[in-house]
Amino acid sequence: MKKFNLMFSKSKKESEVVLALDIGTEFVKSIIFKPIDNNQKGIIIGVGTARQKVGNMTSGAVSDINGVIKTCSKSIEKAKNQAGIEEVKDCIVGIAGEFVKGTTTTVHYERAKPEVRIDMPELKNIVQKIQWKALERIRKQFSYETGHSDIDVKLINASIVGVKIDGYRVTNPMGFQGKDVSIGIFNAYAPMIHLGAIEAIVKELGLKLHSIAAEPYAVVQGTGLKESPDFGGIFIDIGGGTTDVAVVKNGGLEGTSMFALGGRAFTKRLVSEYGLTFNQAEELKLMYAKNELKDDEAEDVHKVLRNDCKVWLSGVEIALENFCSSNLDVLPSRIFLCGGGSGLPGIYEQLSSADWVGNLPFASKPKISFVQPRDMVYMVDQTKSLTNPQDVTPMGLATLTLDLDDKDNVMSSVLKRAVKIIQN
């Protein structure tokens, strides 16, 4: 399966640099990189991180534009200093939060003349119908969840999941005969109010915005694992304010789901339990995650956070139940963790327990592993600064700017045309 980028309309020259900006609830992370090998890989030459002030972000969404601008500036300056450059213009920005929706729409199209070979006009018509149907469905979902019927949403990412003709999987349906054409397309959408905030921040920073991307989509794409047609897995990215869940099956991204519970909730629990300031509690949490506390202290923190970890696991269960109720019979039995919150021992402990697995249709007990920077196969970290799972998301964003599509892939080109129609 080939992915489709809504990113750069032209390949980047190897001499140019690009900025990937991950605006999180707790931190803003900046990566500056150079595309190499005809835009097939990137070399990371600068990394910068800056902590957000409380109130800048709420559940992954911007709540104070000016505050976020200041934090982004600090992060970008650090990255530029390490890269030894004075200016970077082009950027891609990640977006997360409860109202970023990713779903796969599969439509079975019954052809009136199955003996006639599929041509380009017919294929374009099928794909456009799928995209309009997907947009209508996502608008209804936003309306139901928010209680507002007039929320404006925009398509931000799209990729082909799979194509079948009379049950037979093909990569290019052109020239085939058959009665039933089934095409699945993954689409990620976000409300215009959130996208508008990102655009305002980028403009104020003097940057040129080429794309806003759904972060769970970026993480999955960055690993390269889904290029295998048999690959299946559940990616869980635990940020400061949200947890993002993405499900991949048979090499196709089935969908994404997000809920507003991340690392900040655990910090607040330590604040209330120990009477600490937020910064003190954050430091305690990090020491606990890094196994830097004494045994008795670590055990005490573990007990304090245990119920919160169980609540977090309930959110994961609900997210996965939604996938099962819509289009999945069996869940993949591999779970990949990333994000700053993934280092908490209680998170791994809860996922490893057998109690929750029986509530969902897993083929076998899931194997849990962590996505590390080395797993982001299209990026080479020249700085050696990216060392843990919280660095994975900006690396995934950087990957989306690369020109990894097969130029001759018919489905990618047809999807690109359909997306332009939808966006306009």
Helical fraction: 25-40%
Quick one: overall form?
Answer: globular
Could you tell me the radius of gyration in angstroms?
A: 22 Å
**pLDDT under 50 segments (min length 5)?**
1-14
Gap between N and C termini: 27 Å
The biggest sheet, with number of strands, parallel, antiparallel or mixed sense and barrel status, is: 9 strands, mixed
Mean pLDDT: 88
Walk across the major sheet and give the strand order: 9-8-10-7-14-13-12-15-16
Total number of helical segments? 10
Number of strands: 17
Q: Return the structural class.
A: alpha/beta
β content, as a range?
25-35%
Q: Give the ordered list of helices and strands.
A: EEEEEHEEHEEEHEHEEEHHHEHEEHH
Describe this structure in words.
The protein is an alpha/beta fold. The chain contains ten helices and 17 strands. A nine-stranded mixed sheet has the order 9-8-10-7-14-13-12-15-16, sandwiched between helices. A hairpin with a 2-residue loop joins β8 and β9. α4 crosses α9 and α5 crosses α6. The longest helix is centred in the last third of the chain and has 32 residues.
Write the layout of secondary structure elements.
Blueprint: E1 18-23, E2 27-36, E3 41-51, E4 57-58, E5 61-62, H1 65-83, E6 90-95, E7 101-110, H2 120-146, E8 153-165, E9 168-170, E10 180-191, H3 192-204, E11 208-214, H4 215-223, E12 233-238, E13 243-249, E14 252-259, H5 263-274, H6 278-289, H7 295-326, E15 334-338, H8 345-352, E16 367-370, E17 379-381, H9 392-399, H10 410-423
Parallel strand pairs: 1-6, 3-17, 6-11, 12-15, 15-16
Antiparallel strand pairs: 1-2, 2-3, 4-5, 7-10, 7-14, 8-9, 8-10, 12-13, 13-14
